[in-house]
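Mods, move this if it's the wrong board.
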Amino acid sequence: MTTLYRGFDQAELDRQYKASETVPSLDPFIEAYAEGSAEARAALDHVADIQFGPGDEETLDLFPVPGNDSAPLFVFIHGGYWRMLSKNESSFMAPNLVSQGVAVAAINYTLVPPADIDQIVAECRRSIAWLYNNAAEHGIDPNRIYVGGSSAGGHLTGMMVAGGWQEELGLPADVVKGGLPISGLLDMEPITQCFVNDWMQMSLEDGLRNSPDRNLPEEGGPLIVAVGGEETDEFRRQSKDFTTLWQSKGWQAEYLECRGLNHFNVPLELCKPDSPMTQKLLAMINN
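Not the wrong board. Structure tokens:
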């Protein structure tokens, strides 16, 4: 038996990252994302399909806080293993957060294929630059931008709080003040060795170049590192290890394991005003 990452054989490594096999069907969750996001667009003032970069898919939907010309902003980055979903299923938390004084942006990025991981990370970073540079026009405080995302979006959240990219875009090193990676792929080494790489086509170098745990900033802001209690050992290990790594630098990070929740319903906790995830996010933003 050939062992791969952390002693897993190929079948077990693949099983650890097949989140879809931990639930009977993905359909109810995808429908919940889409329906909640459609309800948000119907109920809230928003600006749709803002072009933030040169690519056709580089668009975002922005939900400001009515009557507030300097609101904090929560940027949500969708998951889907970098090859599924879009911003159109990614604003389900907007009614909850806007009602509590936090603007929301749901961002889009080019999927694989034709994109690769470098392109996707670069596009997400351009969205942060656009939001920072155009904040005043949309009633946003550019000094209170927070980022979150689920699964692949959790990975991309990690790459937004990473170091080494901000100066090239003319941004302050701490442009992102804090993060909420949910079920994040924060260690990309195993992704280069499991079934996900069938479509990602990453070398180990590609993976490590885009691995949040290998690209820490010089100074890290607060993080809430969330995961579902019903997720696989590896998804929970990833979040635990990243929390410990962040804390080892002397930075603030809290591991939040949401009991009884799976990989797909855990981000929906952001729709609930009284959920621990919402409460901890608001505390981080309003600190």
